[in-house]
Structures are given as structure tokens and as C-alpha cells.
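Contributing: when you submit paired examples, paste them exactly as shown. First protein:
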Amino acid sequence: MQPIPARMLLAGLAQAGSVGSEMIEAVVTDSRKLCPNCVFVCFAGQRVDGHDFAAQAVQQGAAYVVANHPVEGVPQRQLVLCPSSHHAMVRMGANYRMLFHPKMIGVTGSVGKTTTKEFCYAVLSAFGNALKTEGNQNNEIGVPNTLFRLTDETQYAVVEMGMSALGEIERLSRAAKPSAGLITCIGVSHLDSLGSRDNILKAKLEICAGLPDGAPLALNADDEYLVKARDTGMLPQRLRPVWYGIDAGWAQVRARQVETVPGGMRFVLEDTEHGEFAVQIPVLGRHAVYDALAAYAAATRLGLDAARCAAALADYQSTGMRQNRVEKNGCVFIEDCYNASPDSMKASLAMFADYPSAGRKIALLGDMLELGAIEEEAHRQAGRLAAQSGIHHLVTLGKASHFMAEEAEKAGLAVTCCDTHDQAVQALRGILRPGDTLLAKASRGVQLEKVLAALYEKITLE
């Protein structure tokens, strides 16, 4: 974070004249990261209340404390009261963002946000100093923290935006002020909080709020809900849509001749404005092709050279546990367990069906969370898909995954149903053989990485 005057950073939060001109060097939400000349923001969490550390923050040199109520030990002149710490973070992020002028792509969507963000970063990095959202820091704390990393040297940026309720993406987009927007698809994640895919569509379209007039908006032409938004006039006419896809022949940016090759995908990228390019990306699955097309579409419509954009897609690097390939004692493990939804589970199983394996294909699939009323049917559908994916044996983990196991077993697939990490470890140790390939996929809350870590430690196969 570049130093910024306190009155500028805290504009709209503190009363006029109550904040000085001292330079703020950091915005901190974790008491372990306190430093002199910072603003400490108190969050009342389920386990820890940041207000309990507010006096300590002042003692360690914090210039100001943003809190939801007065705190003993924090002088009134250093206290900035705000009913919502989340909204305070977004406001400070917006104030800081005003200092800089990078070309920025804002990314949202139900599935593929992070992979698309990484493709955008690969492309933007080919043209200059680029900044990206780290991990999945895409909420009302993560997005401001990304904005606080902007400097005068930042030429390009890509910011991922997630949500759990209506209104969140609008606030994030207005703060980030992206130069281009991108929506990957409209899925069923967050149905428990939003109630319908129509509401999810409305929430994702909120990214338009922060885009300037004439800005490009990359949209998936193969997504029925995004096409519905076009046909029903939901897309702001002041923006410039650029449609990408595989099946939709009318899309401006398309992938043709899509095929799986060792270590990734190969296809011909066809652009109605810039011609055709041969592309190969180092990630498997048809869904990854969509993510690459999205990044290319947004970047080229920002005016970046099309040929360089297409070539830079090959520089994509996987992050976290997204299709991370690990080899142990002759077995291949595909760690795709950073998160899961019905759409991403379907895409992962489709990828696995095409994956070249020297031996059998084994799947470790766990619960998909936050599905609300469709939880049972979504897991049953996943079980049916697993049975059609050329899998030799399915191991499930979690309560909801019992439905998945039932459907897979009905379809003739060998299934082992587990309720604990230890059960899954023991089951897989008895199933795996040298030459096998294991796919691991579940929502982040299931913590499949614990099973994998135990397997890697106890890799002796029976």
C-alpha cells in the first residue's frame, strides 16, 4: 500500500474535520499484523472480536481504529465509528482506488471465477506490471485488500468478485471501478441465500454498476441465463457486450476443434474482429476453454493485441487445489477440491472422463455445500454423472454425498460411502493400485485436503 492521507482514506466514514492529514501506510484487520501508522478495522467474528484488540492497536501505533461502537482505551480522536466494518473496508478500498489508473478486469460468475482470473492475469502480465486477487479473496474484505495493493507501477489488474447476497457485487464493483467486466456463468451456488437462479443472475449483473460507459462486458454465449438477460433487456445499453462460447455460432469469440492433449487442451480460437489463433492451455477440461476465452475476450476488447493475448493463455498457472496434479508411488492424484458446485462437479467429471490414465480411474467426491432445497437432487445427479464417467470405484465423503452414492450404486458403479476423513483414507488405501488416477472434488468446507495429506503420508497401497 502506498501512503495515503488519512482524511482521504477515511473520507465518507469519519466526520469532516475529525481526521488529520497524517499518512496511512496500511489497513489491518488482523491484530497480529498491526504496525505503526495503520488503520485497524474491528470485525466482530464468531470466535474472535476485533474490538478486544482495539486498545492494543493504538498502543502499537495505529493511527485510527474503525469500530462498531466506542472501545475503552481508544481515544475518541482516533476512533472512527461505522455500523458495518465490511462497508467501511469497501469505502476505504474505493477511496484508495481513486489514486490509480490501471486497466482492470472485474471477474464474477457462479463457476470458474478464479480460473478465469488466473487466465486474465496470464494475459495481462504479457503486457506489463499486473496485479491479481490472491486466492479467493473476493469478498468485502478481500477485494479492498486487493485494491490496497495497487501502486503507481500497476499497469493492469484483475479483481475477482464474489457474493452471498444481493447488493454485494454492486458495492465491490463501484469500489474497484473495473475497465472491463466479465461474467463466467449463472449457476446454482448460493441458492440457499438467493432462492433462485434469476436472483443469482441479478446479483452477478451488479458488476455492471462500476463499469464506465462503453466498457466491454464479456459474457458466456452458451449460458442460457446470460442470453436471457440479453433477450429481456437486462444488460445495460451503455456497455459493450462481447460474447464468447463454444456451441453458440453467433458468439464473437469462439473455440473450435477443441481436443484434449497431454497436460491440457488445444483449440482454434476464432475472433470475428481479429481472426483465428491456434491455442493450447495447460489445464484440462472443456470448462477451462471457456475460462480462457473469457480472459481473451475481455483483454482484447480493452485494446490489447489479440495475437499476444491468445499466445499468453499458454502461460496460465494453476493455484491452490484446482486440478493440481500430484504423483505418488505410481499413482496420479488430481487435486480439484478447492470448491464444488453442481456445475463445477459436472465439469470436473467431464474432464476426468477424457483424462488419459495408465490404470483405473478412482474418484473421491464429497459434499457440495450451500445448495439449499436442491441439495439432495444435486448430489443424486452427481452420482449419476459419476457412473457415466468411466470411473472404476467411487468413494464419497459427507452426509449429502450419501445421495450421490445411492445413485451411483444404482447405475452399477462400485461405491464406498464414508462419513469421516479417516474412513475415506482407509477405503482408498485398500482400493488404489499403482497406475491408478484419483480425482478429488468437494466443497472447501469438506476439507478433502486432509484425506489427500494422509494418503500421501501413508501411500503404501494394499
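Second protein:
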Amino acid sequence: MLELSEVFKASRVLKGVARRTPIMFASRINPEAKVHLKCENLQNTGSFKLRGAYYKISQLSEEEKSRGVIACSAGNHAQGVALGASRNGIKSIICLPAGAPISKVEATKGYGAEVCLVPGVYDDAYAKAVELKEEKGYTFVHPFDDEKVIAGQGTIGLEIIEDYPEVEAVIVPIGGGGLIAGVAFAIKSLRPDVKVYGVQSEGAPSMYNSIKEGKRVHLDSVKTIADGIAVKEPGENTFNLISQYVDEIVTVSEDEIAAAILTLMEQKKLVSEGAGAVSVAAAMFNKVPIKGKNVVCVVSGGNIDVTAHNRAVRRGLVKSGRDCSLIIDLPDKPGQLSGVLNIIAERGGNVVSVVHERNAEDTDVNACMLHVEIETRNHEHIAEIKKALKEAGFKIVK
């Protein structure tokens, strides 16, 4: 059984290795609550995973260290194990899903690990790692379902209590559950009055479903921009700890995750990966009861591929009403295009692209389809532009 003394021991071991990340006030995340961010995206290796991986490796016997370590990961645990192994002078092999962001793959290699890319998702990489462990005799470092790994992640809970004693609620991302298991155990052991909420993506709700059904559930597939928490089945240790110490688990949509990534970048100048932003999404869209409370959202990592970040930002702009695409059915006669564009300009919309399509299959022979993309201020601004277009006699198809 995990004991609080183990978490305090991990905290001592990690001094000088893991950064004590800041807790940053973010007043505009949710105006009805005092939201703060625990910025593990600013951690060494760009993620909280260093804490658990390093502590686990540091506690191995000399015989275990001599055999080398192997791990599987969507990317962040890989980097934590690679750096932890390098710091301890140990060989490391990391199995990653073939679809892991290039930035994470290259970073893992850069920390000194040998990388084995495996077709599929995290669970497929896990199966390959277990196979190699048995074949070669490596010591396996589990990304979440290990008490020492959980103890390492629990040091985040200690820091939250010490650095922000006024905290009343903590919101934590969930993949396999190692982070929230450690954080919830540490916080509830010291401050049982503090609420701990977990967040998963709607596209990978393995722990959400498991807690709901009272047993571990295996998902057939997962699909989410939050690749760091795309886990088909939670761990046994993590499931048990979460069942005991976590107050509630909720899910957020892909659009909500994207909006949170955009908000963190714009408001706090922080780069977050999808997995790191789900806690902020839960606070932004009132998925948990935090009105009037002092809240900490754990932003668990910032290792997002530049291309994926670009897609997420674009999606976030749409979700927040900052980008709008309209399809307008126009009579094919002079002055129609300028009429539409003038109305948009008069109301402060900025047109970024126009496609004027004649002879579309679903239009009248004397009509055309106009596709307009507009930069807008918010959803109210979009509604104002649409209303003006309709009042001028233009037919908005979508």
C-alpha cells in the first residue's frame, strides 16, 4: 500500500532533478472562481512524468539497474525515463506508438534513450515493451500503474498544499491515472477537505467509464488530440486509489480542449499539449462545481507538436467564436459579392478567404455558392453579422 512517507521521500530525492513548478493565477479562465495553474508544462522534459520516472529508477537495486530499463509511452513518460536513466548511468529502451509527435520522439532520443516505434496506440507500445522485457531481461518502468511512480507524481500534490494553502479544489488530467492517483492521495492525506476532480477526453474515457461501472473497463479504441491521455485501460493500482480519493471524474470535448490550448497561449503565454489542457477546459466550461472556490488546474505537459498546436489553435478559434465560416446562396448577378463583403466589413468582421463557386450540384442554375471565412470577436459578433446578412436578403446555407 502507498504511504505518505513514500511521497515525502520522493520529494527529497527529486530535489535538484525536478523543478518546483510555479502556481500561476489565471483570472480570466473562469471569472466565477479563483483559478490557478500548476505549470508542469514548465517542468524539465516539459512534463510531470519526470517526477515518477526518476523516482522509480532511483529506487532500483544495482542488479536491476545493470540490466537496463524499458518503458512504453505516448511521449512524456519516455522523456522522463530517458533522462532518469541517463542521470543514473543506465541504458534505456523506450517503446512509443508510431503516431507519437515527432517532437516527442526526437526529444526522447536526445535524452539518451534507444527508441522503438510500435504501430498503434499506447496499449500496443505497452505490449511490445512487455515482450522485450521478457526477452531481454530489462527492468520495466510502468508509466502509471506503479506505486513508486505514483509516489513521484504525488509530489505535485505536496507542492500545491505547501505553495497555495488556500486551495479548495484541484483539477487533474487523467490518462492511465498515475498523476491524479498520486496527487489525490497526497492532498487527501493532508487536506481531506480539498476536492479533487479528474478530467478525461470524450474520445478516451477509460477511467471515467471504469469508475462509473465500478470495475476497470477496456476501450476498443481511443481518438483524441490529447494524445498523452489516450489510454484504453486504466491501471489496477490507479483505479483503486482514484476510487478512494477522487471526488468526481468528468469529460471534455475536442473543441473544449482546443479552446483551452488557445486560452493558455493567449492569456498566460503558456504552451500546453492537449492532455495538459483538459483540466483548464473543465474549469473554463464549468464541468465541475468550482464557483467561488480557490482552484488549481494541473497543466500536466507542454510537449505538443507544432503542427498539432496549429490545428488546435484553429479549432479553438472556431469554438470561441473568433473564426467563422459562412456558406451563402447568392443569385448570380452583379453586385452580390460586394454586398456581402460590405455588410461584413461594416460590422467589423475581417474576411480572410472567399471562394465563389458556380455550377454547384445543389444550387439553382442561376445561383452560386459563396464560402466566406471571417475573423470575428466572439459568438455575439457572428450572430450580429448573420442577422445583418439575412435582413439584407442573403440566404445563409450554413
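If you have annotations for the second protein, write them as plain sentences, like these:
Residues 26 and 133 are 44 Å apart (CA to CA).
The first helix runs from residue 4 to 14.
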